Inverse folding.
């Protein structure tokens, strides 16, 4: 087995994410919009914003990660590319993981880099280190994309499958959202939270590709 | 093979040897595409098995071309994915795709997209070609091209299984009506 099909799938997905026109702008706009609405809704009291800030941003990040996922496998199923990928002889799970990582690089990583700036807006930074926080957001969003990818693979042949993806993926987002928000809150018990966050992401990266592969085979059947 | 609640076909047996060209015949919905997908390993049969002695090419009725992808990019991608190291320019010339080589898929005509999909056959030598309605959307020139490709492939010891409506432009070694 060679890695060539996996690399090719990665490159094609990367190109596709940007060729869609919006690239990362759509999820970034969604994240920004959602985060900005919150202070308008709950008032501008600094203490309140500090308290809810980390949670709000993780929720917004989770929802924003779902914005672009609908097309990741659906377009392949529609235009016949999926049939070709399934016949390369490379493990389907590896191809699905490559496509997910490509989408994460084009949409998830920009989201993760943007999130600490939004957190500043809430004056909610427990750790003033923006880079560390960006790393935590990146870790969490990677899990969001892998779980979202499972939803996307399951709804690859469903028209307007976006809602279905949310229904499938959101329950799987729970551990990441909990440990992510806890890691940023600086409250009691937050010391070990980054490690739990990393563990939940590793779990997603290890399990989701196999679920995606099974779903994609089913979609082609 | 069961599709939905309907039994499409049962107890059929197909085999191809080097140089063979097998035509799949049948009305719309008879199961030609399904049988090809079973042979390609994309669809699992309810019972029975497929033995593959050699690698195959697949050209389905969906071309596998992305809207933003040009024929040149498409062929480059699959050359890399398959690690075949083929030159894409001669293939583009052979398939009559020199002019639209750098036009994005969404602007191509149906015939040009089909030619792009068929061009994948030339990227790597594989003994078995599975073709689903290869003539679809092609002009007279394109149909002749398909016939020539199939003839050359068989002359080299390749085999073809094709679902074709109407007249095939080559002498088949057998046909199967579903």
């Amino acid at each position: 087995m060679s890695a060539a099909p996996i690399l090719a799938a990665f490159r094609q997905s990367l190109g596709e994410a940007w060729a869609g026109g919006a690239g990362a702008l759509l999820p970034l706009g969604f994240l920004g919009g959602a985060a900005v609405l919150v202070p308008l809704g709950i008032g501008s009291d600094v203490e309140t914003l500090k308290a809810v800030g980390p949670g709000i941003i993780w929720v917004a990040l989770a929802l924003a990660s779902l914005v672009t996922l609908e097309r990741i496998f659906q377009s392949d199923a529609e235009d016949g590319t999926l049939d070709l990928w399934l016949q390369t002889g490379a493990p389907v799970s590896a191809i699905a993981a490559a496509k997910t990582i490509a989408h994460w690089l084009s949409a998830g990583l920009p989201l993760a880099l943007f999130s600490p700036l939004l957190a500043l807006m809430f004056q909610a930074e427990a750790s003033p280190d923006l880079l560390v926080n960006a790393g935590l957001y990146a870790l969490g969003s990677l899990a969001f994309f892998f779980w979202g990818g499972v939803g996307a693979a399951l709804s690859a042949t469903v028209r307007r499958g976006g809602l279905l993806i949310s229904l499938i993926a959101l329950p799987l987002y729970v551990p990441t959202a909990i440990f992510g928000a806890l890691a940023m809150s600086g409250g009691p018990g937050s010391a070990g939270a980054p490690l739990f966050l990393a563990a939940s992401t590793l779990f997603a990266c290890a399990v989701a590709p196999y679920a995606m592969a099974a779903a994609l085979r089913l979609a082609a059947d | 093979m069961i599709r939905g609640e309907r039994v499409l076909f049962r107890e059929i047996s197909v085999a191809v040897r080097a140089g063979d060209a097998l035509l799949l015949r049948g009305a719309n919905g008879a199961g030609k595409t399904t049988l090809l997908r079973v042979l390609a390993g994309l669809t699992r049969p309810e019972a029975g098995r497929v033995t593959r002695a050699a690698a195959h090419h697949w050209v389905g009725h969906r071309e596998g071309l992305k809207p933003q992808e040009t024929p040149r990019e498409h062929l480059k991608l699959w050359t890399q994915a398959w690690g075949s190291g083929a030159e894409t320019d001669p293939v583009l010339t052979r398939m009559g795709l020199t002019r639209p080589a750098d036009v994005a898929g969404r602007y191509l005509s149906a015939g040009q997209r089909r030619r792009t999909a068929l061009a994948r056959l030339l990227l790597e030598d594989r003994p078995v070609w599975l073709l689903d309605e290869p003539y679809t959307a092609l002009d007279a020139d394109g149909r002749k091209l398909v016939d020539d490709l199939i003839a050359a492939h068989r002359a080299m010891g390749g085999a073809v299984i094709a679902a074709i409506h109407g007249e095939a432009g080559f002498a088949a070694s057998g046909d199967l009506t579903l």
About this structure: The mean pLDDT of chain B is 88.
